[in-house]
Design brief:
This protein is mainly alpha-helical and 238 residues long. It is built from 13 helices and no strands.
Length: 238
């Protein structure tokens, strides 16, 4: 038993252990989601979190220790964000034919996402730091963390809120759009990409390639616009 405890003490401090655990958890979660025909409730991100969390709790592993391994995956968020330019380029002809609707939808969605978060947080009496952390929740993680830090929020809290926003959007987007009778895949994809960034975009690609492409477009444009409007809204509303 002592040898096992000593071995675990050694392995638990290795970044490679938690990197491997994270990758394996996601692969297992993705396999489960595929087996369930990509049901919205079987989101791979949700399932992976549910797999990793009890392991960290049982082993009493601190987040800082876990993140030493997970940071390698976190680093890939940067290149992934830059790669969002590809859907823009691939769909440039379609976009050029509907610039006005896209820009109007983008402006309305970005202002609503950030503004409603700030106003609701104020209504519930949350602290200023929490409000500032909540404001950029609907944009992709690398951009949201930068915005949060710039306006005086807590980047760690923002990261959690960004993930929750993405998961909620990915789960409810399909049934919500069906209830609202929105059948245009461009509109469906654009709305979820704007509101729920990468996780919502991944879900859109699972449902329809056109929806996925427009979700990627919305995600990229929203990242740019949110970085501009959040500081402005913070000055006006806080």
């Amino acid at each position: 038993m002592t040898d096992v405890a000593n071995l675990w003490s050694y392995l638990s401090t290795s970044p490679l252990l938690w990197l491997t655990a994270t990758v394996l958890a996601y692969l297992a979660a993705d396999a489960v989601a595929r087996r369930l025909d990509n049901n919205p409730l079987a989101n791979p991100v949700i399932l992976a979190v549910l797999m990793i969390t009890p392991v960290l709790w049982v082993t009493q592993t601190e987040y800082a220790t876990y993140f030493e391994g997970a940071q390698f995956i976190h680093f890939l968020l940067g290149p992934a964000t830059i790669a969002l330019a590809l859907p823009l380029w691939d769909n440039r002809e379609t976009i050029s034919q509907s610039v006005a609707p896209i820009l109007l939808a983008l402006l309305a969605g970005s202002v609503t996402a950030a503004g409603s978060a700030i106003l609701l947080a104020q209504a519930f009496g949350l602290s200023t730091e929490v409000i500032l952390s909540l404001a950029p929740k609907s944009t992709t993680a690398p951009v949201a963390l930068g915005i949060s830090e710039a306006v005086g929020g807590l980047p760690a809290l923002t990261a959690v809120l960004v993930i929750l926003t993405g998961i909620i959007g990915a789960v409810i987007v399909t049934p919500l759009m069906t209830v609202l009778r929105i059948k245009d895949w461009r509109a469906r994809g654009f709305s979820v990409g704007l509101a729920s960034h990468g996780i919502g975009t991944a879900r859109a690609f699972q449902v329809n390639p056109t929806a996925g492409a427009y979700a990627g477009i919305a995600m990229a444009l929203n990242a740019l616009l949110t970085s501009i409007i959040v500081p402005v809204l913070v000055r006006w509303l806080i």
